């Protein structure tokens, strides 16, 4: 009897190991973070291929048959809050703007860049009856900036391009919702923000004195990043996440001549259809939201790393290329026969 039990143990041991290894290939859940919330703190955002993953339930559908739930977290604290979730082991993948991701990397967060995110236009607004007409008029004024986000880096560049620095304005740290409220009550003289400022303008509350539209030097840039530890444990899951992102970007590019359906989906965020339509007018969806980590992205991030150091936002610079893992994106593009669909963008 004892011999039989030993024999069974020897036979079953490899099977148990195999089953254990297979279980390890499938996480208990996939945790996805988004840097920002919709109007009224709703857990929906718009304006990108990334947002379509959530709006169209792409990841949930992809992993449904595996029994793996996808949990989205929309964080009002934006990029800095996403960094905190990575630091605490609470996030597996996210979209993240250039500055917060750079601060995280410089601070020791183990992440990988998997694909490029969108180029995001920015707007500087003032109360509707303000005498301020240009960037130069901001000197000495109360200027709302969401610090630690890509808005801070872009604001510094825009000010410098007009002969000013952050020291020349009274920079006040405010999140997006607080910024809009402060503009409406005139508790700030100006603010830098996103597409939702266009809606405030249409309500007669603010005027737009500056936009980055048409000038990629000052837009917010972002990438799709993942936890290095999670990627090492679950490479096949990572590939499937990247695939769904690429397919979302492909869908958006295919709608380029008429983005009505995208605007309709994005409007669930609370930012009006008309604001997205104006923001995307005259721009190529294929170029604006390309997933390629190309010469444009490389140049922008190298500049951002240097600027973050120059502005005292990080202590030391680092090499960009070792941060990027193109392997999953390259595999997906090949398998989906999308090599060449997006043309590499040149450095600005």
From TrEMBL:
Residues 82-253 form the SsuA/THI5-like domain. Keywords: Signal. It comes from the Bacteria. Residues 1-23 form the signal peptide. This is Nitrate ABC transporter substrate-binding protein. It comes from Sorangium cellulosum.
């Amino acid at each position: 009897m004892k011999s039989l039990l030993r024999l069974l143990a020897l036979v079953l041991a490899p099977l148990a190991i195999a089953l254990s290894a297979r279980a390890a290939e499938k996480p208990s859940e996939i945790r996805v973070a988004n840097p920002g919330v919709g109007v009224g703190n709703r857990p929906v955002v718009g304006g990108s291929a990334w947002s379509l993953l959530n709006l169209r339930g792409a990841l949930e559908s992809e992993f449904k048959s595996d029994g793996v739930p996808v949990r989205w977290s929309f964080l009002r604290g934006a990029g800095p809050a996403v960094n905190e979730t990575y630091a605490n082991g609470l996030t597996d993948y996210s979209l993240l703007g250039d500055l917060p991701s750079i601060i995280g990397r410089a601070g020791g967060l183990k992440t990988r860049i998997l694909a490029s995110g969108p180029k995001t236009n920015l707007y500087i607004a003032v109360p509707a009856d303000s005498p301020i007409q240009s960037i130069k008029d901001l000197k000495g004024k109360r200027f709302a900036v969401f610090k630690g986000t890509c808005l801070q880096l872009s604001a510094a560049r825009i000010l410098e391009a007009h002969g000013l620095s952050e020291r020349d304005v009274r920079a006040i740290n405010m999140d997006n919702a607080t910024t809009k409220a402060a503009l409406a009550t005139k508790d700030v003289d100006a603010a830098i923000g996103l597409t939702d400022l266009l809606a405030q303008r249409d309500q007669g509350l603010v005027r737009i004195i500056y936009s980055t539209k048409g000038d990629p030097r000052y837009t917010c840039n972002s990438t799709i990043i993942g936890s290095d530890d999670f990627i090492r444990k679950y490479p096949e899951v990572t590939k499937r996440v990247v695939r769904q992102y690429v397919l979302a970007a492909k869908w958006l590019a295919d709608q380029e001549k008429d983005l009505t359906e995208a605007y309709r989906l994005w409007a669930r965020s609370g930012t009006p259809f008309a604001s997205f339509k104006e923001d995307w007018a005259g721009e190529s969806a294929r170029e604006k939201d390309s997933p390629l980590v190309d010469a444009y992205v490389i140049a922008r991030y190298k500049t951002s790393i240097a600027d973050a150091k120059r502005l005292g936002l990080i202590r030391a610079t680092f090499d960009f290329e070792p941060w990027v893992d193109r392997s999953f994106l390259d595999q997906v593009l090949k398998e989906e026969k999308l090599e060449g669909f997006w043309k590499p963008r040149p450095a600005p």
